[in-house]
Structure formats: structure tokens, C-alpha cells
TrEMBL record:
Domain Signal transduction histidine kinase subgroup 3 dimerisation and phosphoacceptor, chain residue ranges per copy: 200-266
Keywords recorded for this protein, A-Z: Kinase, Membrane, Transferase, Transmembrane, Transmembrane helix, Two-component regulatory system
Positions with biased composition (Low complexity): 352-361
Pfam families: HisKA_3
Lineage, broadest ranks: Bacteria, Bacillati, Actinomycetota, Actinomycetes, Micrococcales
Record has Transmembrane helix as a keyword: yes
Name this polypeptide is given: Sensor histidine kinase
UniProt cross-references to InterPro entries, sorted A to Z: HATPase_C_sf, Sensor_HK_TwoCompSys, Sig_transdc_His_kin_sub3_dim/P
Amino acid sequence: MSSARTVVDDGGSGLASFRRNVWWGLAGTVACVLGFAVGDWVLDPAVPAGLRALTGLATATTIVACGVLLARRIRDEGPSAGWLVTAVCAAVLAAAVPLTLGEFGIWSIAPAATVAVLVMFLPARRAWAVLGATLVVLPALGLVTALALAEPDVGHAVWMPALMVLAFGPAMLGMLRGWQVAARLDDARRLAGQLAVADERLRFAADLHDIQGHHLQVIALKSELAARLAEADPDRAAEQMREVQQLAGDALRETRALVQGYRRTTLDAEIANASKVLSAAGVAVRADVDADLAASLPQAPRSLLGLVVREATTNLLRHSRATRAAFVLVPDGAGARLTIDNDGAREGAGQDDGAGLATGTAGTGGAGDGTGLVSLAERLHTVGGHLTWADDGDRFVVTATVAG
């Protein structure tokens, strides 16, 4: 992999990092609260060693099982039956031993945490209903046990389980809801980018149809008329065919003009259009363009820079999950330097895998069709320019230089 051409991994994204952070937040909450609260009691030498070992093992198993279930939930997978049974049994055991010994401050932590994890697999209304039922059952169980053990502080046996349910349930469901909203917004942003690309293709197709449709229809009619007149009136048939020839030439010229106009729009217009499309796709855009410099460039370099803007924007919309992009045009000696960068860089992709902006090397055009970053680099070279693309940390940067 050369220093001038590094590519990014299509698999990694800010959303993937956010998903990991959500999992760490949820699983870490369960592990830390259970570990710190139950750990002190498990290490207390005044408690029989066998009960401490049993409770410690049950607590550790609860933490692991909850972590596995949370990972499946974040990936939108259903709960594993084995881990589901393991989590429930471990939580019951982790609660039963302290409860029978009158440890009303810690017994409810494991079941409250486990219930909060399990309800994440339920629809929202059922999840809140189960949490409400747990908010009644656990305090009632604490109250009954406290009365049976003649516990003088009955209030502590009641409010502590209620506090655990209120602490775990809403917080964990809220974090899950935040992840779900982020995932849906990312899907919507990606769809907006795909729609923007499709809309541009449809616009060009419509323009091409408007030019070719009329010409082809008239050519077909005059050709049919000429065929009918070929034997009866050869002169008129020849006249019709000359008109067909003229119409075909007009159609060809207008099609070429359309393609040239599509590819040779002004650099300012390309950057303005790219900013509009990217903003519609949820990408924050910064454009820092020296308008006088852009206007002073010769037609060929300016058109090629416009194509670079279009190709980079198309690749960003198709393959990157960037949230910010910037277009900067500044003087560079006797010419100009255009820099296009975004924060969608990813690591570990192959050169031609279609990741990020580097898909222009192969994914969006071959070297001979006038599109793709490789082909554009070759075309810029013919006019004394240069085109490179590389990642820089979390940024992917396309740099084009042209002579003035």
C-alpha cells in the first residue's frame, strides 16, 4: 500500500463505535454495580466460606450472562435460550443466599439487573409493564422476608429493591432507545445519499430522453416513408433519407453537448451542488473556495476539478458514513489546489473493495470511461495536474492540483 493511496474499511463506522460504547455502558453498569455491592459481602470473613463462594459464583455468572444477552440485543438478535435460563437461575441464586441471611441491602441487585436486561427484548409497553410488576414483587418479597426474620428495619427491606428496579430499568431502556434512534437516523442518512445519487442519474436520463426522443421518433417515421417511396418515387425517398441523415447528425451533436455540459459545469456550481446534496444527506459541509481563483483557471483544468468534486461527492454518498466534509480551493504556485476531505475514513480495506472515497479507483469507473479517481488522475496529469487520495487518521482526503 503506497503512501499516496490508502483506502478505508467499509465495515467500520461511527455507528459501530457507538454500538460498542452502548454495550460497554450497559454491561459495565451491571458488572460494576454487582461487583462493588456484592463483592464486599462476598469478601466478608464473617460470612461462611461456602455461602460466599456460592454467591460470588452466581454473581459472576449473572454478569457474564447479562453481558452476552446485551450483546445479542444490541445486534438486534433474539435472546439465546441457554443464556436466558443461565441468567435467571444465577440471579435467583445470587439473591436467595443474601436474602435468607437478612442482607437486605444487596440481595435485590442481581434480580433487578437481570430483569432490566430481559425486558429489553420485549416491546416497549410490555417492557414497562414487566418493570412495574417487578417494582411490586421484589419489595413485597423483601417485606415478607423481613417480617419472617423479625428484621427491625422493615422499610429498608422494602425501599432498597424498589430503588434497584428504578435504577436499572429506566436507565437501561433509555440507553437502548438512544441506540435504536441512532441506528434509524444512520439508515435514513444513508438512504438520503442513495436517493440523491439516484435523483442525479434520473435527471441526466430525463435530459437525454428529451433530446433523443423527438429525433428518434422523426427518424423512424421518415425512414419508414423513405422505404415506401423507394420504388414509386426514388427522388423523394432520397430526400427523406437526407433529412434522416441531418436529424441523426443533430441528435449526435446535441447528445455530445449534453454530455459535455454534464461533465463541464463550472467548479463553483459543482461545489454548490455537492454542498446541497451532502447537506440533504445529513453531512455538515464547509466550503472555502476562492471564487476569483476558480474563475481564472483555464476551462480544461476547471472542468476536471469539477469532475473531481462530483466523483468524490458520489463516492462519499455511496460508500462513506461521514458526518462532516469540506471543500477548500486555494492558490498553489501558478495554479490551484483543491482539497476534499471527510471524517468517514476507516481502516483495513483492500484497494478495490468499494470503501469510502477510494472506490473511485475502481468501483465507480474504469480507467477508460472518464470517471473514477484513477481515470481523473490520468486526465489531470495530461493538463499538468496531479490527483492523490489518502486517509489521515479518521479523515479521508482527496487532493487535486492544476496549473494556472
